Amino acid sequence: MREVLVVGGGVAGLQAAVITAKAGMDTLVLDEGEPLVCSTDKIQNLVTRERIAGDEIVDTGRERVRSFGGEIEDTTVAGVSRDDDPGPFTVTGDAGETYTGETVVVAAADEFGFLSPLRDEIEFTDGPEGAFTTERHLVTDEANRATTNVYAAGLANTWEYQTSVAIGDGAKAAVNLVSDRRDEAYIDHDW
Ligand SMILES: Cc1cc2nc3c(=O)[nH]c(=O)nc-3n(C[C@H](O)[C@H](O)[C@H](O)COP(=O)(O)OP(=O)(O)OC[C@H]3O[C@@H](n4cnc5c(N)ncnc54)[C@H](O)[C@@H]3O)c2cc1C
User: What domains lie within the chain, and their CATH numbers?
Assistant: First the structure.
């Protein structure tokens, strides 16, 4: 049983996993290996660099997840379900393998077929018209919660197609997830 299962290992999912793993939560990222940033070596608009290759962001993010004890598996998630609210969740891979988790972070950009077992509790909204905008997003509250113990991050949650937004949204989902689990505001900070 994992405390956190992250579906999608792009920048949003990896950032969420860095925070939950560093917070000491048993974290597993399930990713089918097609982060959008990896399609370019010229990610622009980050505050720290004029340009950075997407592969470098993802490779560094993966290293950092692992450095905090998190794990990453290459798999395509086919289903996320639970017998009771609040859980646990059963996550099924396309080869039939299963994982159980107490919480789920959905960071799979615009791929949501695996959420159909939760269709009665999760809502979607259309994104705005425009080049590159994705069609659908999960409806979440101010703390990135889509339903009990399910959080959404990055393009799964918002239409703003910038890497920095996806990274920040992954951080926000994770900080709220840890805070919910601990029932107090969680801040990762050097004192
Ligand atoms: C060519 C290009 C250039 C870009 N340039 C810039 C730029 O200059 N500046 C900028 O700010 N942004 C840029 N972007 C946008 C940026 O890449 C995205 O906004 C950002 O990467 C979104 O991150 P994400 O984690 O939400 O989604 P993604 O990176 O798409 O991550 C989602 C992950 O989930 C995985 N996944 C999906 N379904 C499943 C499933 N069923 N099971 C398991 N895993 C699954 C996918 O394989 C993927 O790895 C660019 C994008 C592209 C394509």
Answer: 2-182 (3.50.50.60)
